[in-house]
Amino acid sequence: MDAISSTIPSRRTALLATIGLSAALTLPGCSKGADQGQDVSAVEDLMREHGVLRRILVVYRGVAPILRANPGGLDAAALGQAAALFKVFGEDYHERKLEEQHIFPAVQKAGGPAAALVGTLLAQHDRGRQITAFILAGTAGGKIGAGEAEPLARALETFARMYEAHTAYEDTIVFQAWRKALSKQQLDEAGDQFEDIERDQFKGDGFDMAVDQVNAIEQRLGLHDLARYTAPPVGG
Q1: Tens digit of pLDDT for each residue in 179-202?
Q2: What letter would DSSP give residue 41?
Q3: What is the pTM of this model?
């Protein structure tokens, strides 16, 4: 983590690195309105947002071996856009405005096994933000040098490993405990509140906008074909 800490960009640098994505996520008319007339529960909404973030983790894992084999041939801007999307949609919105302000306090108040996880989850949020800053700094120049490739590849892989476990525990333990701690009316009110936060943050449907961004990033990096992830036959 020393290499990561030594290249964390300033607040201004991070802002400049993400401003293009932030603009893209707030452009009018970008939302597809896929859920028009359909109710999405608060827990379902949280879990599908995790789906967006997991697709970025798939990108990170797919990019790591490319970095090691041919760092100069990688579309560094596309990788930077993936990190910027994780920052804007994952860290600034999903983590800070939903989990840290609403989910975790309620879970801690309820107590139990889920409450005991909150300290670790918060520490992982902080570590993830350090790694995202490291990725943004490493891709800001538009090219990734041979000497930068291995530390960046390791950062991508360790981030993906951490956040895969992180989201799995949240989906199966923390979000379920939060749901059980609230009445149906409170859950409905939370869903409405989360929707208001999302639309205020992104000036539209942030989920649909983020999915569009992930699709574009996967296309640019050649990681868009689901079939490429099919496991080979056993013993093959």
Answers
A1: 999 999 999 999 999 999 999 999
A2: -
A3: 0.86
